[in-house]
Records
---
Amino acid sequence: MASPVFCRVTCMVVNKCCSGKEIALLFLGDESTTHEETAMGPGCANCPVLKTSLFRNLSPDQIQGLGCVFRPARFRRNQILFFEGGIAQHLFALHAGLVKMVKTLDNGRERITGVLFPGELFGLESLTDISYPLTAVALRDCEICAAPRDEFAAYLRSNPEVAIGMVRFLVGELERVRTAVTDMSFKDARMKVATFLLSLIGGDAPNGNDTVSLTLPLSRLEISEVLELSPETISRTLSSFRREQLVVARGRHLVIHNRPGLETVAHR
């Protein structure tokens, strides 16, 4: 999402222009995270973030302006993007990879609150809050764009229609959270596990009865935290799906053999 124009003007803060590859420091709260910063490439034109309801109707000039705000970077698996309680200075757009959000409980234990997929914005609390309420960790090698909150806020002020779109987007996020809470309250274990597995399938995955192979981004213990189920229930449910020839799971490798059947379970 970053443009070459931005790189020529702004990357002096990391000592040289980022034509090609560049090692930089992105300061996130009280910590700094080393990441590899790159110039805009072919993948930016197909960025899933630009296809979301918030950005898909932008004009070329607005997209160019957005590219002057977001800095592209690559983060390695298990790298922390920001810490709970850290100063909220950036918001983020996930281009590729997976990110988990983690909350530290009063007893010191950590609880996974959700998994983010390509096309999602996160760290939006930086627009209104002083600190991040959660910790963000890369589950896989990720391509992520980060925008300083002040620069993004200035972009919104200069693009009122985008600001209105942001309001609509946030309302939609609230509805999504309400739906997720309802799902957790009323869906049984089979429905929760089926819904989670389907959420891991990308939009470009084949439909119908074609098999889909994927690698689970979380352990069964971590999945149980997200779904508020016991690890034993996760294992029993996957075993049940295997007997019904819906899926086959070996360790973290999963093959979905009957996607329509899994969708029926998720919405039953």
---
Amino acid sequence: MSTNNLLKFYHSSPGYSVISLFSFLIKQIIMKCKKMDFIRQRIEVICLVFLSAGVPLLAQTEKQLVIGQQPVYRVSRASEPITVDGRRDEAIWNNAEVQSFNYFYRGDKPVEKQNSEFRMLWDDENIYLFYECEDTSLTARETNFDARPYLDDCAEFFCVPVPDSIYMHFGFEINITKAAYDYIVLWRYYNNRTIFLRSYNPSYKVEVTYEGTINDESDKDKIWRMEFAIPFTALSDFHLVSRPKPGVRWAFQAVRQDRNFVNDRFRSTSTLFPIYDIRKDVHQPARFGLLEFSGK
């Protein structure tokens, strides 16, 4: 069944609840999906249904993200071409709002609070991200795709193209050697379990620069920088639900993972917006902030 036909079916069937429709579609995926492309297409259909219905995927007990109460990051528009090279050479980056990762977690060991800065821009095709992170010990062990780059020095970005805290979002995690993990999250989907749909493998650009040596604890390193260009089309048809234009708002969270010892997986976690209870992980949608596309 195509996306359009499914949406027509949903809207013409008032007795068919959102949750029951969601459960039915998930069961169909589990029973019938054998090819990655088919999984991706069905997931797009499911999530588009929920976005079009204007309701969260599951009932939430925590405070919802409410426009006017959550922090807002204003994303300046890029007025010149941007080359993704991890250097931030273009003058337009000087117009980007600068935010710091001021919320630190992982209390089982002393946390080294190293400074980090985050910037965003956008144009008709892409949203651009720039992470700039002081780091005295550059560390990255993961080399596999869709594995665990979050155990290394790593940048993470979560977003959903609506200004609400629905229990689904896109995730991008890349360590400083560019080992990538991208996915769709169904947060606390069933029995408080969060599902990561790894078959989501979008095309986007990432480049990294750094000052120091990776995985060498004998010296003192300085900094790493990571630049993204994520096409709006990488979000499938979701960007059509709330099209990027001045004044439009999306929910998002940005995260830095900071690992300082090659043979110790411990790392500190810092976020742009506060989590409060890190035991629930960094994917809590009710704790996302907002980005707002600006015309300037």
---
Amino acid sequence: MRRGLRSIKVPGLGTFSRASLLERRWWPTNHCMSQTLFSSSEDGADVSRGHSTGILPASHLRGMIQRGRLKALTDIEDAQIQPASLDLRLGSVAWRIRASFLPGPDSTVKSRIDQLALHQIDLTKGAVFEAGCVYIVPLLESVALPYRVAGVANPKSSTGRLDVFTRLITDRAKEFDRIEPGYEGPLYAEVSPRSFSILVREGSRLNQLRLRRGSPPFSDTELRRLQQEQGIVAGDADISDGIALTVDLTGVGLNALVGYRAKRHAGLIDVDKSGAHDVGDFWEPIRARQDASIVLDPNEFYILASREAVSIPPEYAAEMVPYNPLVGEFRVHYAGFFDPGFGYSGAGGAGSRAVLEVRSHEVPFILQHGQIIGRLVFERLTEPPERVYGQGIGSHYQAQGLKLSKHFRV
């Protein structure tokens, strides 16, 4: 495009001024963008239909599968494709290793496994991952990402609620749960059950992958506008580098149930079976106290809920960021992804609370009702997804209050 050009005709859409194109983020700001303007991007998306940057929705993920950008040793199933993420599956083998690791810029994951592995485990018929141990599993999926597309992974909600610490690793990685733009190669999961031993097998889905094109900023100003227009949380919102969520320790009614604490030395949980276990065999109920507080004991795992109902608009995705050390000595939310449509009234989710996976660290820590325990950060999708959370895709946690994982009988 010439520097002096003030308008352009977009086929099928009309003529737009430069200012209008800039507002829609359709005007190229550098050479790389101009190469794909008004055409299919490398991930198979028609960028003229939406935004040139953002989280890729399900339709774009399908395009990447068709183009071989997302591959697998067995066909990727439609049930793996979520509104803005892809569920990843364990492969046929695992290694128990002495300690967690990152390969670093000069090593592959396999070379580090060869150094650290204690023994190899066959997952084709199922195997037990013992609490307190660390395992590395090659995933069935691999990627060949375009140069402007990066990945970020998180445990699935059900995985986090079982206190199963799961992180994605790639060859030459310097960070967990991150895939650099342009990466081509295998994916691995580090799996470390903390409270319960688990039964897994080839094809078990413990974590999920989001893909992001570019680095779209999302300012607090935009978040305030979204809160005003669509009501992400009810009432006044505390917005600063995301939207604050607080803990509910009063519940509803006298002696209300406000949380659960994982029992030590409990039984085995099959990660692929829903409604197969009794709550009382694995969890101790926590009732509301008169002073509306709870003492988090070191190295204990708790399930709590947010005081706020959360609503994620269909064009956006959110993530609960790790705890701020200035807030307290605890970690909140292993499984941080909130899908488009979670808690959204149009998808039957009005009143959905954020369920919080909480673990205290070195010292006992007192949580008070209404204390900030994390923040939701938002990102725009490149375009609205075909279906949102809760619309016929096997969503287990729409319209939830305080809720354990799907593995337990109601």
